[in-house]
Amino acid sequence: MMVNALNAERIKLLSTKSPYWCVAIVALLAILFSVLIGAFASGDDSENIYASDYTTGVSQIGVIVLMIMAVLAVTSEFRFGTIRTTYQAIPRREVVLGAKAVIYGGLSVVVTLVLGIVALLLGKVLSGNNMDLVGSDAIRQYWGIPVYTLLCILIGLGIGAIVRQTAGAIVVLLIWTLALEGIIGIIPKFGDAVSPYLPFNNAARFLTERDTSIDFPWNAYGSIAYFAVISLIIFGLGVFFTKKRDA
């Protein structure tokens, strides 16, 4: 059953335009930010640039685009009514969402892996700094961004399955990733207490591992593990609501 579900999701992926547009936008953002940062951070300034700065277009903005792609993978089926046909062919709904996670997650991992490497190479060449492309900071970007992206895809699929409506799901996603955690963080006392446990704060800490004012209760690898748990919970809730509600 899983093989059939994977084949079905692969066909959907390749036969719709939105994934192509999303990947193209991510590629454009990755290259654009890397070129801009590399070109303007020359000379002594380039030594203050981290490997994670060059990959900003991928890890901070591009990943959001890929999360929107994951949302659309679910909500578009509800919008056009094809979800009923999908569930008739594959009655086990958790298998359907699992197949989406494999296909869209796999695509996103490959895309961000390639673009992360390209972004680092471009940034280093244009800035002329002495960043070690096989150093620990760079290596963390090579594997860390794809892992982070995969977890974000699970969140996107989970939100899409819970909300079901495209506009609503994208609004929830954008508010959470772009504003909510920042707003919570500036609330006196409450923000200081809660910030170490906000998911995307932990993900950002893992990718950059810079000194921040947030007092995390664990190290950088604990942060990505915590983010993984939150991602799996949201995806699990998506599966739960999908099984409980009518198509």
TrEMBL record:
Chain segments annotated as transmembrane: 20-41, 61-80, 101-122, 142-163, 170-191, 220-241
Source species, domain of life: Bacteria
Sorted UniProt keywords: Membrane, Transmembrane, Transmembrane helix
Stated name of the protein: ABC-2 type transport system permease protein
